[in-house]
């Protein structure tokens, strides 16, 4: 069996070069690959194109890489919680491709499934449609959207085994499983790494065939983006 286990995040991302395209799992701050993001900041790799649902916050998640000017382009659906992102966007320092959230998810899923393009009604009649092929189906207009793939997909799971099989927990499942299928190299950090055979096959969300590197992460903060303790 191929040995997919690496010692830590530094080893997992060591060969990510400047100008790479990365997919980073997570939704808000839930299910983000905290260890790998920290390792990327430490490595100082530059010119990255990051595909992620959002850009984290100013001092956590992808926001850390924005602060150190490591990101050249963001492909996202929501970026409203990050003031530094807004500043870089408005000043022209950062390229941004904003995509409807469902379209973003489907473009990633298509990339993993080997489907180069598909039609969707989302965005028709808006700036999203500019420059895209439009066709009518059953009296409704649809845009042609292309797949998304990445040089590296970096995901975070609850449990994984040494063969790369992954289980995600609760909301942290979000974009992680589909991104795991759409990277040329998929790196998984997990809260608990177990031996092959310890995971119930019926509970596995991502089969190990999609994962090339896996390690057990440490010191997860699991921050909450917006904490609500009382409803007025």
TrEMBL record:
Signal peptide: none annotated. SUPFAM superfamilies: NagB/RpiA/CoA transferase-like. InterPro entries: 3-oxoacid_CoA-transf_A, CoA_trans_fam_I, CoA_transf_BS, NagB/RpiA_transferase-like. One of its GO terms (molecular function) is transferase activity. Pfam families: CoA_trans. Gene3D superfamilies: Glutaconate Coenzyme A-transferase. Keywords: Transferase. Belongs to the 3-oxoacid CoA-transferase subunit A family. PANTHER family: ACETATE COA-TRANSFERASE SUBUNIT ALPHA, KETOACID-COENZYME A TRANSFERASE. This is Succinyl-CoA--3-ketoacid-CoA transferase. It comes from Roseivirga thermotolerans. The lineage of its organism: Bacteria, Pseudomonadati, Bacteroidota, Cytophagia, Cytophagales. The gene is atoD.
């Amino acid at each position: 069996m191929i040995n997919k286990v690496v010692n830590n995040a530094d080893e997992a991302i060591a060969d990510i070069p400047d100008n790479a395209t990365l997919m980073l799992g997570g939704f808000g701050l839930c299910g983000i690959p905290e260890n790998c993001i920290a390792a990327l900041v430490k490595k100082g790799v530059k010119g990255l194109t990051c595909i992620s649902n959002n850009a984290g916050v100013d001092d956590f998640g992808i926001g850390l890489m924005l602060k150190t000017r490591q990101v050249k382009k963001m492909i996202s659906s929501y970026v409203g919680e990050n003031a530094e992102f807004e500043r870089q966007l408005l000043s022209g320092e950062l390229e941004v491709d904003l995509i409807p959230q469902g379209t973003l998810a489907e473009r990633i899923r298509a990339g993993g499934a080997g489907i180069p393009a598909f039609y969707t009604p989302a965005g028709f009649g808006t700036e999203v449609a500019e420059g895209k092929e439009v066709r009518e189906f059953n009296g409704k207009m649809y845009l042609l959207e292309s797949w998304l793939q990445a040089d590296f997909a970096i995901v975070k799971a609850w449990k994984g085994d040494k063969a790369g099989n992954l289980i995600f927990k609760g909301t942290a499942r979000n974009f992680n499983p589909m991104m795991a299928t759409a990277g040329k190299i998929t790196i998984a950090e997990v809260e608990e790494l177990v031996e092959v055979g310890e995971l119930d096959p019926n509970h596995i969300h991502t089969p190990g065939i999609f994962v090339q590197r896996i390690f057990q992460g440490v010191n997860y903060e699991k921050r909450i983006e917006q904490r609500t303790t009382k409803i007025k």
